[in-house]
Design brief:
With 90 residues, the protein is mainly beta. Strands 1, 2, 3, 4, 5, 6 and 7 form a 7-stranded antiparallel β-sheet that branches. The two termini are 13 Å apart.
Amino acid sequence: MATATVTMRAGDPSNPVPGIGPLPLNVRDGVIEGTTLTDVYVSQAWWVQVHAYDSNGVNVCGGDDPFMSVVEGRVTLVNIEMGCIWPHCP
C-alpha cells in the first residue's frame, strides 16, 4: 500500500449527501495514519470510507464505518475494518 484516502458523508449510507474528501491519509510502513478534519460538524451520523492504493494507483483495500460519532465537532469513535478488494487479494 502506497497511498490512502478518506471520504466522509453525512446522512444515511444508503442515500449519502455530498461530504468531505477524498482527503489524503499518511501511509508509513504499510500502516494508514489519520488526518485532521476541520469541517466535521455534529450530525445524525457520518459515513466514513477509507481506500488504500498500491504504487500503480490500483485500489487494493478499503473499509468503512457507516455510524461515526461526532460530538461538539470532535470525532469520538471510528471503527473501520479494512478488507482486500478482489482481485487484489493474496
